[in-house]
Amino acid sequence: MKKRANSSQSDFQLPKLTYRVWAVWRRNFDVFMKTWHVNFLPSFIEPILYLLAFGFGLGTFVTEIDGIPYMQWIAPGLVAITIMYGGFFECTYGSFVRMYFQRTFDAIIATPINVEEVIAGELLWGATRATLTSSIVLAVIAAFGLVSTPWFLAMLPIAFFGGLLFAALGMCFTALAPNIDFFNYPTFLLITPMFLIGNTFIPLAPLPNLLQTIALAVLPLTHVTNLSRVSIVGKIQTLAGLEPEWVLFLAAFWVALVTTILFILSIFLMKRKLIK
Amino acid sequence: MILLEYKMGSSESLIKARNLTKKFGGLTAVDHINFEIFKGECVGFLGPNGAGKTTTVRMIYCFSPVDEGELTVAGMSVSTRPREIKRMVGVAPQEDNLDPDFTVLKNLQVYARYFDIPKAEAEKRASELLKFFQLEEKQTKSIDELSTGMKRCLIIARALINQPQFLLLDEPTTGLDPQARHIVWDEIRSLLKKGVTVILTTHYMDEAAALCDRVLIMDNGKIIEEGNPQKLIKTHVGEDVLEVPFNEYLLDTLKQELPKATIEIFGDQIRVFVNKHGFFDRIVKKFPGVNITIRNANLEDVFLKLTGRKLRK
Questions:
Q1: Which of A66, A233, A236 is nearest to A151 (CA)?
Q2: Does the distance separating the beta carbons of B87 and A112 come in below 8 Å?
Q3: Is B97 in contact with A30 (Cβ distance < 8 A)?
Q4: Does any CB of chain A come closer than 8 Å to the CB of residue B279?
Q5: Domain assignment of residue A211, yes or no
Q6: Quick one: fold of B2-233?
Q7: CA of A92 to nearest chain B CA: how many angstroms apart?
Q8: What pLDDT shows up at residue B311?
């Protein structure tokens, strides 16, 4: 990294955002809708395959967890994983391609829209994409009869803020990525472990206490899964010695806090990368 | 010429730079430069690669922050009022950054949205621009299906979507074939006729001579000369240039015959610069059979004289 002569540009500032964020969001939405059938298809097929394989396959041996049939217990996990993939990959590979190969950001920055608004538009789009695709998954699990509370409507804000969390996390890596292959690191070192110990398919409660504490302290997926599970099946387990209501409270607090921090941080890092 | 004087004499100032400086780490890309650009002019920033042309242009459209000095557009500082400035400028960057996810027409419509241009108005302007740039037939095509020249035209069309007060064209014809270059030049000329202010960067001397009322020659981040291309040619290199393969006897004869002329040796070639036409007739007669070329002096001669012949990074 070149050191800047004028330090005021790299000093930290809160992002200056206006309604113009919308035009950036809308650009990505238009591209998404142009090929909506391709974009929605995986969200439709994937949960069916998972439900069949895990639900009927593994579900034969693991009949229930926490008093809930296994297939129903993993359903919110599927929604949470879709939120994670939607936000994270849109703002890593997707944003990187737009920034580096297509130079779309440069083109937009030459208009009255500033660089902070470009990144904020990307993040909000990542959150929207996560909401759209996870809603398809929610519809599929509802069709399997796996949604048992009216609180499932809370999935919309959970998906949006969870999506924003993973979008902002991804954008931080985009700001640090020297090339597109770099994303292999966060994918294998962060996304895959979360897939495994994010309380999605494998219950976290029986795992060693240390692992439970780590999953609650640093892994965003654990909290998004916990929120999804409460919303869809109305129940979560005691984790790392915390009662279910405290696990729920921690999840909401953790997501709100970390999303805010990463949202601001990722915009700052991207601004530093793009403005020369 | 009359038009030029009218423009320079009575027009309003549009852009003013005072001690404008930009540094990248230890490198001073733009080094305390001063210039002023007036409405209606076509001004070219001319210079070898790395001279600081693109960096200067990027500061004008508020892409790169100014490190030192002052830069104002229509009286507004680029540091404090970037949104207003960006609203009144059209930018055609050096590299193709058209949106490959959209068709030709949609590229213009989406770009109009970035300027808050209402949908109906955007559609009207987009179709007018496509007509002007003869891209109507391509409007439903994707960007990948356009030739390099068409892409360049579309980038310039896109830069006009907000009806800018001035256009910034960063190397508008680099990488184009001769046909496409001339098409782009014609487009630029017709925009100039309409009164659009055009600021371009180029390292093609013929381009600057063909389009610009005034050129600012940059080297190593500094403006080393400025003026009207024809006047610069006359002042620095004269009217005619004689070129002949190096030959010691010939060199001695030239020195004797033309004591006042500038004689330079470029590689294996002798070049002689003179101030008036017709000076070389004698020489040509004296050396029948020798491969002597006589041509008009051009901006390239000025440029090489001022910036030297060393290869730039």
A1: A233
A2: yes
A3: no
A4: no
A5: yes
A6: Rossmann fold (3.40.50)
A7: 18
A8: 60
Torsion angle of C-alpha atoms B209, B280, B242, B273, degrees rounded to 10: -60
B178-189 confidence digits (pLDDT tens): 988 999 999 999
Q: How far apart are CA B152 and CA B175, in angstroms?
A: 10
More confident of the two residues B294 and B37: B37
Tokens, residue A139: 């519809």
Helix-strand-coil split of chain B, %, nearest 5: 40, 30, 35
Report the phi/psi class of residue B152: left, alpha or beta, with left for phi > 0 and alpha for psi in -120 to 50: alpha
DSSP B201: E
Query: Looking at chain B, which residue has its C-alpha nearest residue A103?
Result: B97
Q: Is the pLDDT of residue A9 over 60?
A: no
As to burial, measured by CB atoms within 10 angstroms (0-12 exposed, 13-18 middle, 19+ buried), residue B256 is exposed
Is 2.40.50.1070 the CATH number for B238-296? no
Domain count, chain A: 1
DSSP B51: S
Question: What count of Cα atoms within 13 Å lies in the side-chain half-sphere of residue B142?
Answer: 6
Interface contact B97-A106, CB threshold 8 A: yes
Domain ranges of chain B: 2-233, 238-296
Chain A partners within 8 Å of B87 (Cβ): 112
Q: What is the pLDDT of residues B117-140, one digit of tens each?
A: 999 999 999 999 999 999 999 999
